[in-house]
Amino acid sequence: MHTKVTLNILLLVILFLQLTGCATTHHYHHRYTMANDGAPPPGSIDVSNVPDAVPKVEPLSKYGNPPSYDALGHRYYVMKSCKGYDERGIASWYGMKFSQFRTSSGEPYNMSAMTAAHKTLPLPTYVQVTNLQNGKQAIVKVNDRGPFVSNRIIDLSYAAAVRLGVYAHGTALVEVKAIDPTHPESVVSQVPQAAVPGHPQLYLQVGAFSVRSNADRLVPQVKQWTQYPVIVKEVQINGRTICRVQIGPLPNVDISDDLYDHLEKAGLGKPHTVVE
Question: Is 206 found in the same domain as 183?
Answer without folding.
Answer: no
